[in-house]
Amino acid sequence: ACLGECPQGAITIEEKAAEEFDEEVAKLHLEGKKPTMEELPCGCPSATVARFERQAGAAPSVDTPQQPILRHWPVQLILVPPTAPYLQGADLVLAADCVPFAYAGFHQDFLKDHSLLVACPKLDDFQAHLKKL
Fold this sequence. Notes:
It is a single chain. The mean pLDDT is 81. With 133 residues, this protein is an alpha+beta fold. It has a domain at 67-132. 20% of the residues lie in helices and 11% in strands. The two termini are 50 Å apart. The radius of gyration is 28 Å and the shape is elongated.
């Protein structure tokens, strides 16, 4: 809040002799201040890169429940590292993350021999995705 007038003499400047700055000592001091992060023996399973091998076989009949064709994880664009092995030389399907829920034959119609990335065009950070792609 404003006092209405500046009080005189409220702040004074004092000059004192100080030791020469030692960058190494400062670095050592700051190292001791860093919080240590305990590494857990686990991690977020959805961020672990994985490949799934599917055995070739006869196409399922109409009465047989559809089998997923997805061959890798994760699929969310924000979680996939650009160095993921399943992206190297891959034919890529980039889909809105709601599509597999709305399109019953998504796996069978789009994922055979393709790698999948999903993102939300409405809610995700488009610029971050564009930079990653």
